[in-house]
């Protein structure tokens, strides 16, 4: 058999193997090479799978040739292929960036550990996305979560430890809820294969354990995706983690959790149960609105740049979950598109912020604690780092949803979904909340461009190793704002597939 | 490459060239001038086909399924494109004198942003659908923001904040949902003669949509969303002159007319525009009264702009063929008159370092040419022949009287008096009052010659438009006959 037939397995196995190899080699440079190669291979595999899923609709792969429902099935539909691309693509950009970035943020002797953990985390996230087996989801979720805790704690800043610990507690509670939910489902259906489970669930879908399973899963996953008000772990984790880690997590971790929620809601429980028999859409609507307004509002008053954009992430997740509550193809399309667009945009922002960290760390004594990016230290930054600042502004425009950027496309699809349901007030709410984004993005603009720099200093741009990957994503933000055939095309197909299956 | 493509490529290349010539001011300014001249020549090439009834088109790419970034030149856009690109040449000459005369900083950034603003203005002029118009409407806001905050002072920053908050806020809150709603009900956003909305749309929905558009287009400065315009006056005067008297605000009222004619169509609006007539009438009078009390010359001019923009909105809201022609003409005539007035304000500032109306006693003797140009601009805004403003006002007034809109007639007459009240005293003071004792000891003459050349050119243009308004009429005629 050709390699093409085994792409689903390779997708996960390659990055998974790169991690132990990195540990065995115990050398930062070699670990970098091997994990990066793994991530690029995974990206190539994801491209291949996206093409295959486009042709076939669904790619089903039987691990060890054991047919489902007995064996573990890897199942790539349109949605999975889209998320695989986002996750592996982000990793492929962030890893080369890491080389220059962790130089200044993580002690040298721990570099190989960083790469190993990165490889594991990547494998875990890809595994969650690709697998068609409920227990497998939990296993990969734990792989990615545990490696994430380590990655966050690697920061030199000692607050990173506390942030990581906090995330560990919250994440474990979430994972426990998820495993309880899966346990109930197994109890009621006797299978772990998601497709099989969906079929057998029809007969018992209004039984108490099935409803309890839905509740446990929804709450557990919401914790992992940082749905307001279960987001408390996120701002600290994003703020204190090493820059490259923040960028990777912001673009992928919460997005994969959203993917899992969509998977369980639409592919397993089905629309009828989730949307017609239970008040879940109303709850989701309320929490999404709370996220869009409260988190964005909190973001405006943050004094730390990373924390500001972390709260912005919580707000933006609100748009994604808002799209889910419509129970329509248009709404689901909006969610999926925004999941992708926001991932790209936020990754770009956090990579650029990493450049600021690197540049300001270089000015202090080597080995010092990486500086906190409070606004008073950013005064006049645009003079010193024009490219970095301009990049943040462009990506910030995407957060606002200015036309010509990816964020505009998200907002447009979301509003079309709201109009379709004739929820006109919601259109107003979506637009009002984007004004909050103007406020927090412009806080940065005013400080960076108008406040005079503390002392006269020349240009001090981030090194090219940091600037090039970051700007690649900034350009992608613009590209996906102008050419939407890939993003909207795939998202619309994915949404149609999900709704058809769920019926 | 077609002329339409070139109209975008030339200024883009120009912006790039300006950035490259950062350290050689003479080369940089030459690039600006050459770009402006080439651009005007290119836009001019489109005129004959458009007059002959052709509608050159250009589709770039599909932004959303069924929605493209597309351009289509029709008479109204042609008019706006000609004005913006033509006045850019004059303004560039003026800028060189002003920026050098006042030793402004960051001149490269200034010229680059200016070129990019022009690209956006042209893209708005030639937009083939609402989405394209909205896209470049926002781009224009962003491109002019660095120009407004050019000085970098706290005052500039505060002005920029107001500028951005109002323009961005209204466009996101009102214009964007209006655009999406049109797409939702009509299935297209292409500008089509006679409108695209379904005929059976309810009156209530039409009213709401009209309100969303009128308040969403903050650049048209309809009260209560007019405050960005006086706030933008912290910008260097060439910016106020071309952008905040021509490109930006005209993009606003141009969009209003374009949407009324090509999205709504005059028929569907019948009976729902009364509030708009009243509100634009109120804006005309209220802004004139504020202008009357403003001592700062640029502030007075800004409020005069707010008032004059509402002439266009009022004319569009009257929904008569003649008034639509009046609206289109007023875009042109006000552009020439107001840019002249701003040019003179900047010339006075550069030569005499004066910004307040009360300081202008006797300045006509020191700067006779400048103040003569000022007088012509003022006459045009008041609407006295032989200045261009008379022509457009005549059309608007005529159609208001014909349609029995007595409120509109009253507003127009009253505003003429107010205009006279806030402009003529300046002319009188400049030429007939004696110089103050302090001024007598600080001799100064006219502003640098590039500025003088520019302001005399536009003043001459203001007169020329009165005597040769026939070609202009021929251009905008198809707006209502099609």
Give the key terms.
heterodimer; A: 503 residues; mainly alpha; 77% helix; globular; B: 482 residues; 21 helices
Description:
The complex is a heterodimer of chains A (503) and B (482). Chain A is an all-alpha fold. Chain A has a domain at 279-503. Chain A is 77% helix and 2% strand. Chain A has helices at 7-25, 28-56, 78-105, 111-130, 134-153, 159-189, 194-204, 208-224, 233-240, 243-269, 271-277, 280-300, 305-325, 329-363, 381-384, 386-400, 406-420, 424-449, 464-482, 487-502; strands spanning 59-62, 73-76. Chain A has a two-stranded antiparallel sheet with strand order 1-2. In chain A, helix 3 (78-105) crosses helix 20, helix 10 (243-269) packs parallel to helix 20 and helix 14 packs across helix 20. The longest helix of chain A has 35 residues, at 329-363. Chain A is globular. Chain A starts with 6 loop residues before the first helix and ends with a helix. The model of chain A has no long low-confidence stretch (mean pLDDT 88). With 482 residues, chain B is mainly α. Chain B has a domain at 273-482. A two-stranded antiparallel sheet of chain B has the order 1-2. In chain B, strand 1 (57-64) and strand 2 (67-72) form a beta hairpin. The longest helix of chain B has 33 residues, at 154-186. Chain B starts with a helix and ends with a helix. The model of chain B has no long low-confidence stretch (mean pLDDT 85). Chains A and B meet through helix 17 and helix 18 of A and strand 1, helix 5 and helix 6 of B.
Strand order of the largest sheet of chain A: 1-2
- The secondary-structure element order of chain A is HHEEHHHHHHHHHHHHHHHHHH
What structural class is derived from the secondary structure elements of chain B?
A: mainly alpha
Strand numbers in spatial order across the main sheet of chain B: 1-2
List the helices and strands of chain B in order.
Answer: HHEEHHHHHHHHHHHHHHHHHHH
Total number of strands of chain B: 2
Question: Helical region count of chain A?
Answer: 20
Largest sheet of chain B: 2 strands, antiparallel
State the end-to-end distance of chain A. Answer: 36 Å
Q: Quick one: overall form of chain B?
A: globular
Oligomer: heterodimer
Uncertain segments of chain A = none
Query: Taking all residues together, what is the mean pLDDT of chain B?
Result: 85
Strand content of chain A: under 5%
Strand content of chain B: under 5%
Helical content band of chain A? over 70%
Poorly predicted regions of chain B: none
Number of distinct helices of chain B: 21
Helix content of chain B: over 70%
Structural class of chain A: mainly alpha
